[in-house]
Amino acid sequence: MDDRLMYRREFFIGGAWTRPAGDARLRVVSPSTEEAVGEVPSATGADVEHAVAAARGAFDAGPWPRMSPEERADILAKAAVLLREREPDIAGVTVDEMGCAVSQARRAQTGLVAPLFDYYADLVRTHPFDREVRAGDRAGLVTHEPVGVASLIVPWNAPVTLAAWKAAPALAAGCSVVLKPPPEAPLSGYLLAEALAEAGVPDGVFNLVPGGRDVGELLVRHPGTDKVAFTGSTAAGKRIMSLCGEQVKRVSLELGGKSAAVVLDDADLGSVVPAIVSGAMHLSGQVCGAHTRILLPRARYAEAVEAAAAAASAVPVGDPHDPATVVGPLVAERQRVRVERYIAIAVEAGARIAAGGGRPADLPRGWYVEPTVLADVANTMRVAREEIFGPVVCLIPYDTEDEAVAMANDSPYGLSGAVWSADPHRALRTARRLHTGGVALNGVYPPYPHVPFGGFKESGLGRELGPEGLNSFLESRAIGLPPELRT
């Protein structure tokens, strides 16, 4: 990629490219070559103060929250056009900075960026920000106001996509924001900042400060921020929720998952199992909503294991720049160590490696793990209960449909799920029994971004996307209306 895209020297604060207060840098290392491919400044406390002050001033005294929804929508729609023009650069940067296979970059890294700005631009043109309510001889006006300054903290697996999931509704609501991109993959966030600035977002409304966990904690704790929107691990989410609780600060959390695919006994295993395995390998398994627990009827278990192993063994693994590659490297060496440790834990607990389980012999450089299928897994094993975040699926047998539903729900998480059946009505009845925020039926996913995304239990708090995503950046106010002000 062009060095201009890979080596950045400034932050975006207050509508301008701003030199950092300190000298610390974040090196961006390619997961496929293990070599440095880029660099950005790392924010200090002074940089955070600068960014929050800019956002605070833009919200308290600037035009953005005082514009009509239609005026904000026009700017967001223009940003969508500019982001589409940048899609090749966004895709190329993410291939280098976090190892996303180029064959999946459209789906994972750009597919819900520009369309999301279009969606919220259209939504706020018709959204009922004000409504009059009558109750007997009384009346009131209910208004929905922007929550204020929002801190947006995103992870490395889809850095610009997840930034857009937060920034688009926050900006549409009239908030100002400070985005902290992840230290492993900070570069694509700069392209978002460029597009928003060119679209005409007023100074201070969008601010960008890369950094590590310390910078995230400063933003969460800062008294000048009104809302935190976070995507990441459940452990980090609990910490953020605790800090926000000390201030009664608004917070939304999109956290981890250990999602189950329930394959009912009438499903066509020959097509269904390979489809599930293939989906679980998306982004090398580094997806919070991946269906990594596959629940299978015991009477057909051996057949399913054979199909899963064949499907995993056929997945192309290699250089993420190669269009033929499906599974690229994991984002960092620590992530590979984590995945390998979980595979070892599974085997020690009695699971069997049906496919994969090691490092590809033909890829001595890069943080690769083979697509792995674990058979003979019990739902009580750690590998079935904890998020691995790698190309590993667990095959778990069940005896009855009720047992399959109970096992799917027996998890601290509840982010996603799937049901497969030859009878779509039966699949829907089963889906209604799953304690999870989203369910795919026979491979059909909900129509994001038009519907909400989020989880039950430890998978999060609140929802992103859909009207719910906009509402999470709004506060409600009720005003009594005397007779002369009623419509």
Q: Order of strands across the widest beta sheet?
A: 14-15-16-13-12-18-19
What Rg do the Cα atoms give? 23 Å
- CATH homologous superfamily caption of the largest domain: Aldehyde Dehydrogenase, Chain A, domain 1
How many individual domains? Answer: 2
CATH class of the largest domain: Alpha Beta
SS field, number of helical segments: 17
Distance between the termini: 58 Å
InterPro entries: Ald_DH/histidinol_DH, Ald_DH_C, Ald_DH_CS_GLU, Ald_DH_N, Aldehyde_DH_dom
Keywords: Oxidoreductase
GO molecular function, one term: oxidoreductase activity, acting on the aldehyde or oxo group of donors, NAD or NADP as acceptor
Domain Aldehyde dehydrogenase: 17-478
Written account of the structure:
The chain is α/β, with parallel strands linked by helices and 487 residues long. It has two domains: 3-255 and 461-478, Aldehyde Dehydrogenase, Chain A, domain 1 (3-Layer(aba) Sandwich); 259-447, Aldehyde Dehydrogenase, Chain A, domain 2 (3-Layer(aba) Sandwich). 38% of the residues lie in helices and 21% in strands. It has helices at 3-6, 45-61, 69-85, 87-98, 105-110, 114-126, 159-173, 188-199, 213-221, 234-247, 269-280, 301-313, 333-348, 382-385, 401-409, 424-431, 466-471; strands at residues 11-13, 16-18, 25-29, 36-41, 130-135, 138-146, 149-153, 176-180, 206-208, 227-231, 250-254, 259-263, 291-297, 352-355, 372-375, 392-398, 413-414, 417-420, 440-441, 456-457, 460-461, 474-480. The strands form six sheets. The protein has a seven-stranded mixed β-sheet with strand order 14-15-16-13-12-18-19, with helices on both faces. It has a six-stranded mixed β-sheet with strand order 9-8-7-10-11-21, with helices on both faces. The chain has a three-stranded antiparallel β-sheet with strand order 5-6-22, with no helix packed on it.
